[in-house]
Each structure stands twice: as structure tokens, then as C-alpha cells.
Hints:
7-stranded mixed beta sheet
Amino acid sequence: MDCFKVNILGCGSAKPTLRHSPTAQIVNFRGNLFLVDCGEGVQIGLARNHIPVGKIGHILLSHLHGDHCLGLVGFIATLGLGQRTGEIVIHAHKDAERIFQPLFDFFCPNLSMKVTFQSFDTRKSEVIYEDDSLLIKTIPLSHRVPTAGFLFQEKPRDRHLLVEKCEALGIPFAYFRGIKKGMDWTNPETGEVIPCEMLTTDPTPSKSYVFCSDTMYSESIIPIIRGCDVLYHESTYSNIDTLKAHQRGHSTSVEAATIALKAEVGRLLLGHYSSQFQTYEDEKILLDEAQQIFPNTELTREQMVIDI
Amino acid sequence: MDCFKVNILGCGSAKPTLRHSPTAQIVNFRGNLFLVDCGEGVQIGLARNHIPVGKIGHILLSHLHGDHCLGLVGFIATLGLGQRTGEIVIHAHKDAERIFQPLFDFFCPNLSMKVTFQSFDTRKSEVIYEDDSLLIKTIPLSHRVPTAGFLFQEKPRDRHLLVEKCEALGIPFAYFRGIKKGMDWTNPETGEVIPCEMLTTDPTPSKSYVFCSDTMYSESIIPIIRGCDVLYHESTYSNIDTLKAHQRGHSTSVEAATIALKAEVGRLLLGHYSSQFQTYEDEKILLDEAQQIFPNTELTREQMVIDI
Lengths: 308, 308
């Protein structure tokens, strides 16, 4: 039940190739599935990764470039064919509803489920999803069109109860849940207060995952992503093509690694590779460049599963 | 130069699966490429089939169901990225322009090439393309939305010149072209007329290819497709599911074969398989059923190349 993992469905850039699909990921947080971006071919990616599509309740679109959202209409149509019920919430820039609602009306009328758009403002960081254990915040990114990254932040976990100690003190079972949440215990007979810290140990640290694509190098994201466990940061180009990266609103491997270093993240994942990289060896250059700066870097690939 | 072949890029139906992509084909007529339908994933199909996309000048959309056209925006965007110039003509129902033009404007602004829509009326057969050697006609089909099939008809070829005979008669080279086209030759000195038939033999028969998908069984197409060399006819379902086929505006294997038989075509290709068929063995049932009626039937599959 404590599953927190990411399936890479596509980590290519604008042009689909035989090596990489356009951007799409599944963030699986304790069985709730979030589809992050929805490039063309997403349905094949979902099938290859054996994703139970019925459990996808939210779709997060970083921005409205085709390689991040042109799989959306087909995906919604297929859910409709499968008689999916309930609700799908699409979190995106406000233009998404204007663009996609007419397509849903035309290509998938009479859907069995409700499709709702929730817009966010890409100029500020805001909470777009919250439940008992998870918070999702947007991260303003710098690209050619309004773009947001996403921070998936697990909420603080319960403290670990020292069960034998509690039992030795005669604390009734009914109080355990409260103590794990941080409450002290007061003996009703003696009035003695036992601090929570004596009855528990620190909780397992909560985990976080950050998705940043597409974006130029931007240090303004550092305060939001600082210390996250895993950062997926686009690395469309090699350091050699820094100028091209800047002209097109993208990042290089070196820039991605510099952000990872400065934000003190645990692990860096590279992706959104330019289609100019024809082989794994080409992409390996990105990895080598990034690892010079931030050693705990990996290249993503389709069907990769990352445990956060 | 006499190439006339079809590449199957996708022969599945509405839901993309790991076995089949949605509908898309390339008709290559003497190096001019026509993209017939443009389902999601078409770019991968083009790459797998090593199609030189720069030579695609026309896109023909049978109808505006998503599995036949949702790859269009991504494909046009990629052509734009490649700085393709010239013109692409999209032949489709009139709604196509209303649906797709805003998407081109949004997702692929400042295209390097011109994209033009030419609408056809799916209620009648009309010529939508013609050059010196090829004619393309629409075929009204019976589906849930306005739908057309396409007849690719090679124009009559030149007669074969009996060169030695012409030379023995002293016919100047300059007359050869006219004679091959069917002109008699008149000796300017004697006034003697030599009929074309004595100077030539019959031409190689011209070839034709028909694409019919999606459609219910409809004998009204027979006069248009009669005697064609190769017929691709949808066969979404097995004979067992005839009722389901009719309810959804599709055909069974038996119905496709019956059309092929009655229209006296040369060869029948089945496709647009329901995603309920999970294995080749499942689809083999479609083949077996069809071959009972029309023996020269084949199952299409992705990356199949058919010489017409």
C-alpha cells in the first residue's frame, strides 16, 4: 500500500521515433494513478507497462505542445469505449478546455464518465491536488508557452509506535492512532503526561517526486523542489547545443544536473531527448555530461519503473 | 517507375493495441505517396515502413472517427519541424477543416508548407485527384458517420510498340509516341494508312486498388469497384458477430468476402480487426470464414507491402 513509483511511458521529444515516444508518465501513489502528460502513443505505453487504466483519475498536462498532449483525445475515447464510469480530472492551462472540449464532443460524444477540466496558473506554484497522504503542487517553468512542472509530495507519515512500551504503561489501544499522529498521552488516573517522543520513534521520511519538462534552466524552481527524492528534468540537448537549447526553451544535460545539485535532490532522471540522438550511445553523452556535475543521474527509457 | 503498391501502417480498429495500430496506409503510385487515413501512431508506422514522408502530397481521410484521423495533427506538426515546403492536400468530409484547422493553428503555427483542405461529398462517387496516369474516386460507404472509400485507378497504359515493324516501314521515331497512344500512321508519300493495331500489341492492363473502411455490407459499392485488382475491405468482426457488426456500422469477414465475390475483384485484403481478437489465431478465423466464399483473401498486418 506504500507504493510510490513512476512508469516512464515516453521520454522522447517532439518527433516520435522508433526509439522514443513523446512524453507520458504514470505516477502511482498507493494505487492512485496520475497520468503526467499524454503524448501521442500513450495508449501503447500504458499497454506495454500493464497499467490498469481504470485507476487513472487525474491527468496532468505540463503544457499544450503537441508532444505532451496529442494522445489525450484517443485516450479519452478509449476509456469511453471501455464504458469507464466516474470522473477524470484534467489539470492543465486554461486553454486546454477550449482546445480539447470540442474534440471530446466531436470524437467521443456520450462518454460514460465525466471529464472535468481544472485549470492552473503557470505563473505561480499552487496546490492542484490533495488527499490524506499526498499533495501535488505546480512548479512554474520557463518554456516557449505557459508550462508547469509538478511536485508530488507525500504528506508526513505516522510516527512509529513503541508498542511494548505503550502496553507496559497500560495505554489503551484506542489511543495508539493519536499517539502515532504526534499526541502525548495523559494517564487519566495519575494525570502524568507521557510525551509522544517517548512512545514513538521518528516516522519514515516522506517521499517526493518532481517532474520538470519542458523548461529552460531556471533557478527559480529550486526553492520548490529542494531536497526532493527524485527529479525528472528534461535534458533535450547535450552541452554542445546550449545555444540551441536556449533558443528553443529547453535544457541541456549540464543544466539539468546543475539544478539537481543546487536543489540537493536525491536522484536525477534525464529525458525528453532530442530526436537527433539516434542511438543509446548518443544519449549516453547526456548522462556522462550530467554525472560530471551530479553523479546520481540516470537516463530514463520507455518501460522504466522508478521506485521513489 | 511503374510502382503501384500499398504499405499497411495500421490495420486495427478503434482501440490501439500491442498487435495493431489504428488505420493508416500509404498508396505509392509511381513514387507519389498518398496517405490513406491517419490514425494515432501513424508516424511510427511511417518510420517502421521507411516511408519518405516528404513525398506524401495528399492525405485522404475516409471519415472523422478518431481511429482514422487522430494522428493528423502530430504528423503535420512533424512535417513542419522538418521544414517541409510545398503543399499538402487533405481530402476529407467538410467537417475536417472545421475540426483540424484550429488544431493546426494552435499546435503547429507558422508551418513551412501550405496545408489545404479539399472536401468531398460522401453521398456520391466523385473524382478527387487526377493526373496523367492516376485517377482517385471516392466510394460512398455506409457507416455511422459520413464515410467514403477510395478507388485508385491507373489510367489506360500505352500500347506496346512493335519497334522492328515500325522501323521496317520507315516510320520516323517522332511518331512512335502517338502510335503507342493509339494513333494510326499515314505514309506521307503513298497515303497508305497503317492501323495502330498492326504496329502495336495491347497495353499491359491498368491496375486498380480499392480501400473500403469503415463500412457495413453495402452492395451499392459494387458497380464502382467491379473488377478491381485488390480490394481492402474492413472485416471488424467474425460471422458470429453479424448482429454486433450491423449495430456498429461494420462488416464481417463473410460480408467482405461476399462483396469481393460479387464485384469480381482479383484479391481481397481484410483489416480493421476488432480489439477483441487477441492473437493471430483469432484473426485466422476471419480469414477462414472469408476464404470459404472468396479464396483469394489475405489478412493484412502492419508493415505488409502489397504490390497491386
